[in-house]
Amino acid sequence: MNPPPSPISRRDFLSKTMATAGAGLVLGAPSILRAASVDGASTEQVKVALIGVGKQGRVLFEAMKNIPGLHFQAVCDIWKYNRENAVRSVEAHQNSKPTAYSDIDELLANEKGLDAVVIATPDFWHSPHTVKCLEAGLNVYCEKMMSNTIDGARAMVRAMEKSGKLCQIGHQRRSNPRYRYTLDKLINGNKICGQITNINAQWNRAVNSSQDIAFNKKLTIEDAILNKYGFADMNQFMNWRTFRALSGGPISDLGAHQIDIFGWFLGVPPKSVFASGGHSYFKKREHFDNVMAIFDFDTPAGEVRASYQVLTTTSYGGGFWESFMGTEGSIKISEIAANSAIYREGSAPSWDDYVDRGILKRTPAPPKPPPSADAVASYASAAPETFDLPGGFNKPAHQPHLENFFNSVRGKTTLNCNARHAFESEAPIYWVNPSALKCQPIEFTAEHLSL
User: Fold this and answer.
1) Which fold has domain 10-175+397-426?
2) Over the stretch 243-267, which tens digit does the pLDDT of each residue have?
3) Nearest to 94 by CA among 78, 73, 109
4) Are 305 and 298 a contacting pair, CB within 8 Å?
5) What would the mean pLDDT of 207-214 be, rounded to a whole number?
6) What is the pTM of this model?
């Protein structure tokens, strides 16, 4: 039996991680609010192939339609239904038909002059497809998770660095003006939270939005094709997210977007995770349908505990958001503006100066509750003042991240989330399910989190 991984110096590991993360996330960062309203994209044409044009591929294409200077040269998907829909959509957008392929190797062998690919295949194909494209000399935008395994994610980082090509991972909040403004201006720039001590985040999805995806049996893919590409049958092809060999389940499908924010905002990786999960409703699924996890962080300002839950059996609690709670204020943030708010603790210094300088926008105070004779009320904290961000953000959620990628391809900026930075964010997520399966905490070592 191999000896257990040996602990490493926390200081050495954190300093190395923070140094590499900082190098990629600060250089070339745009003006946050200006980026929401000013289009500075070059019209220099970038020739693109779309690899995987199912539901998520269509979401990305709809965002890319708003970006000037892109020519969609080819599409690839093993399902004829997806291929034909993609060809029609692309042709309607650019008045020229892309070449359609069912196999990525055929595409790479035949398509000439490509600059970039956008990969939105199932998670277990992300690493093989990304590595192939990088080795072929193409720049890659790949959806998250990087892979269904941590070794697959490691292979993507190595391929990116060996090839010298760009590889952006689709953690789109990294380019979202609301998130970047919150981190740069509020948390780091003005320390409005004071000392952050806790983080809470969730993605709660209703049962009717979590059902297996049905399909028209007349459109069934032949078994030989399904088997060639790693699927046992059409049900597994449609619902690959629920199978352990093909994905990480809800914690990676949904949770990865938000757990990514924890380390990004704090600037350090977690030191441990303790998770619990179960089959509360979907009894026959391989993956848990509900997962809760607690990550412990050591930051320069002090310890932070971050709790995360992903539920597929209820939409209670407002869907998805992240809250950063500190001694002087808290920030609740989401891709959905209505789920976002900023709260000042009553003991904190006045924020009037932030409002006067346009850094924050004051929102109307909620009505005061009527006087109560209940003695318990005397123990309650006073309701905090509520604020919001100035300006707005009205682009599709994925568009700024794709803009960042294509502007990086053109040499105009640097990536906001390349494969190395994404790996540093995703590595802890790969250990949530093992922790939940064993009902045991996992103390992270270099072997858990390093390349």
Assistant:
1) Rossmann fold (3.40.50)
2) 999 999 999 999 999 999 999 999 9
3) 73
4) no
5) 96
6) 0.89
